[in-house]
Design the sequence.
């Protein structure tokens, strides 16, 4: 039960930072997706069941905060949480390289899922333009932020067992 409150608190803080603070700092429209990083880290550290739940609520909060088509982020974050959670038992949780590799894959996968859903809803999708103008710059920010977020969440959820 304690873990539930920890993840809920982390999500609320993260969505507040992403919706309020990041647009001020990154005013060109391209910014890190801290919610995506949280879902991936949750999957890697806590497993797929918890990551799907975190992905659902993270996507729900992101849909409420962004005002985009409701449900797109919910579905994409749940899928990413599930996929990231599949690796939970097979990986070394203290690894620094793993979150970087996972966030690179998750950033592309999240974009592909969102674009596919938009296409299925009848919207015009220009994947290459979005890849060049949004996904690749966002990928750089996501990689930059994923290690500190991973270390912070690891310390919060597992205590101070590691020497980071």
Sequence:
């Amino acid at each position: 039960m304690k873990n539930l409150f920890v993840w809920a608190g982390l999500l609320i803080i993260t969505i507040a930072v992403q919706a309020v603070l990041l647009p001020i700092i990154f005013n060109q429209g391209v910014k890190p997706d801290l919610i995506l990083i949280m879902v991936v880290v949750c999957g890697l550290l806590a497993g797929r069941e918890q990551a799907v739940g975190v992905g659902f609520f993270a996507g729900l909060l992101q849909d409420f905060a962004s005002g985009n088509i409701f449900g797109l982020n919910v579905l994409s974050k749940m899928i990413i949480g599930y996929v990231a959670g599949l690796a939970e038992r097979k990986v070394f949780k203290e690894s620094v390289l793993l979150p970087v590799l996972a966030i690179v894959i998750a950033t592309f996968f999240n974009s592909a899922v969102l674009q596919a859903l938009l296409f299925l809803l009848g919207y015009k999708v220009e994947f290459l333009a979005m890849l060049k103008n949004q996904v690749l710059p966002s990928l750089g920010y996501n990689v930059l932020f994923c290690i500190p977020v991973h270390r912070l969440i690891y310390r919060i959820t597992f205590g101070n067992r590691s020497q980071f």
